[in-house]
Amino acid sequence: MKALALCGDKWHPEDVARRGLAALRDPDFTLAWRTDARAWPEARLDDFALVILAKSNNASSSDPAPWMTDAVQAAFAEFVRRGGGLLAVHSGAAEYENARVLRGLLGGVFSRHPDPCPVTLIPREGHPLAAGVDSFTAVDEHYFMEMDDPEADVFAITRSEHGEQPGAWRRTEGQGRVAVLTPGHSLEVWLHPSYQTLIGNAARWCAKLT
Fold this sequence. Notes:
Elements: E1 2-7, H1 14-22, E2 30-34, E3 50-54, H2 70-81, E4 85-89, H3 100-106, E5 108-112, E6 117-123, E7 136-140, E8 144-147, E9 153-160, E10 163-173, E11 176-181, H4 187-191, H5 193-206
Parallel strand pairs: 1-2, 1-3, 3-4, 4-11
Antiparallel strand pairs: 5-8, 6-7, 6-9, 9-10, 10-11
Helix pairs in contact: 2-3
């Protein structure tokens, strides 16, 4: 199954997502990578069953220009509604507050974060996407989110000295599936065994493998 991974922006180097996803070693996925979105091939989304969005609204790590145009948003919406899977990880929900179509797909977007601090991820007991995930604490950017979908199925929360936030949720759109995971600023978080399990669970659900 082919999956497209979009990563690399001003604040989040592509190497973190590349190493974090490579560590999954899921034989059901073959990953293709795009780090520069200036020449976005909207029509090629149909080549994939899953898109993993780990990129904020910067064209690349060296070009902070927005890439999420109306045409790109429409392509994402069509892809998901026709049955594709979309998994947004950390910066994949950032700087999209004015991208109304995409934030509608995600069900919520990044609002702000305090300085990096100890953040605890707490999975929802008994939820299928939290299976095998233990609570853990790591220094991270604690993402505070603007939630748009009150019916989003939250399967993990994040907690720090600054408060509590939804840390992982899923929703459906048309025939497609969408999930959002908010932790993941550092490689330490991506490589934590519980977070690896959470990413894998969410990716497989979005791709309709579970």
